[in-house]
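Bumping with the actual sequence this time:
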Amino acid sequence: MNARQEALLEIGRYLQARHYRFVTITPESHRRIAGRDEHREARDLRGIFGWSRPFHTDLLPGEILRLMEKADCLESDHDLLRSSVRFSTAGDGLYVHSAFPTIGADAVFFGPDTYRFLNLLDREIDGATRAVDLGCGSGAGGLSIASRVEQIILVDINPRSLELAEVNAALNAVGHAHFVRSDLLSEVPGEMDLIIANPPYLIDDHSRVYRHGGGSFGEALSLRILREALHRLTPGGRLVLYTGTAIVDGVDTFLEASRPILEEAQGTFRYHEIDPDVFGEELDRLAYGRVDRLAVVGLIVEKRRGSSSSHP
């Protein structure tokens, strides 16, 4: 790791030693809480590294402030300071990611979708030889299943994601993770028996990597993952895809778009709605003017044994 990563790792270990815990909520809920007068400034570690509040220098030891400077995550906020990264917990894991609000083009997101994704993986993953976390972001998904697979490859197109994912692997004592910068599987050679993915599934006016899925309602990237993954899985291999779908006049638009791909695939699939109503504030936007609701779903595809994979 580089010096910036080493500094972030030491900050994370400082928080672990103090039994730091923080559950990250939706940006809209966070915005509401941040607007309360009593929460304008940080008063503890959770305020600094969880709620992304400005803080006075006397809240942290000088060594941690120096580490934050070394990690390039210490920013000025008028007469106060602010951290440009957050640390969230999920189960026994601690993960560093971008601070609130996640407005940067290379922001690394962590939130309720992450927790739902981890719950899906906990139910579905019982082992694999070569697993890939596609569009890994903070790396939470792949790192959470690392103890159940022989090899885990964390893949993202965003270099900032890979930088933080490498720190998170060290924070969570995962020594057998590999990191690849790639547009989906283009730079990942060979076949794999497990692919997991929690891609962006919204329409974002600024096309931010962590948020924009493309297509009519944000489904394009998830459909591309479905197509590419099915060509790279070994016989008997599985894709576990957590994504969103726009429901229009009662029709699940992602499922309908997926059907031709699934019908051509040599295998079986299961599909279920995990949460029927997420990111309700998005429905005010023009892009979702015809949408009844946004839901998140789980799609698990198993490639039929005896079928062949085709890949470069």
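The tokens above came from a reply further down the thread. Residues 3-98 form one domain.
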